[in-house]
Amino acid sequence: MTIKVAMKRAFPLVLAVVVYAAALPTGVAARSGSDPEVRIARLHYEGGGDWYCDPSSLPNWLSVFAARTGLPTAATDVVVTLDSEDLYSYPFLYVSGHGRIAPDEEALAELRRYLDAGGFLYADDNYGLDPSFRDMVARLFPDDPLEPLAGSHPIYHSFYDLPGLPKIHQHDGEPAQGYGVTRNGRLVLFYSYSSDIGDGLEDPDVHGDPADVREAAAKMAVNIMMYALTNP
After folding, report:
1. Rg, the chain, Cα only
2. Helix, coil or strand: residue 27
3. What string of DSSP letters covers 105-129?
4. CB atoms within 10 A of CB 14
5. Is 39 in a helix, a strand, or coil?
6. Alpha carbon of 33 to those of 18, 19, 91, 146: distances in Å?
């Protein structure tokens, strides 16, 4: 990809400041992309993992975000790949799954450009993604490692004040832990491990989670989105 094309693709992330200055609160405008509504772009990735998992989680997340923040929010997510022409129209990229994620070097380079241009990646391990995701991040940013985030990190306090990442599903019983990658002082990637926020956002009859567990997932999801939108 030429520098000219890369700059053209990154343009909507910069243009957002102008497009939304009148419609959204200060800060949110800087991260809303060229779409007039907050939207989640789900990444269709390579490697064989079920990138399409938890199909009801993202529409539910968007609905909760709209209801609680009052911001204009899309009803559904979109699906993109790292070579999608409209990738840079969506400043919030979501990754989940139980299996393996293994983008090739060209795709990794595009993801690096996307994040350095102002994009944000949220990855939610749905139990099984962890080993390959950590390997991908090490290849993506060899000089900026994935590091644990303390409960005092602003992502846990961007809308609700939370003590840290909530534990939604027990699975292997390990404590929930949020990780992040910081580039030039900006958190560009947030990773929720041993938590399963996506499962907590699914329709109530999918997993049968009690109301307090679903509420914990909803609050964390709202915080993640708000943080991404208000920290360009």
Report:
1. 16
2. coil
3. HHHHHHHHHHHHTT-EEEEEE-SS-
4. 15
5. coil
6. 10, 8, 6, 26
In this prediction the pTM is 0.87
Give 75-124 pLDDT, tens digit per residue: 999 999 999 999 999 999 999 999 999 999 999 999 999 999 999 999 99
Q: In this model, does residue 196 exceed pLDDT 70?
A: yes
Contact residues for 21 (Cβ-Cβ < 8 A; gap 6+): 29
> Which pLDDT score, from 0 to 100, does residue 89 have?
94
Residue 126 pLDDT > 50, yes or no? yes
pLDDT at 7: 35
Taking residue 199's Cβ as centre, other Cβ atoms within 10 Å add up to 23
Task: Copy the structure tokens of residue 30.
Answer: 């800087």
Contact assessment for residue 195 and residue 166, using Cβ atoms and an 8 Å cutoff: yes
Comparing CA positions, the residue from 171, 165, 92, 167 lying closest to residue 129 is 171
Calpha distance 124→95 (Å, rounded): 6
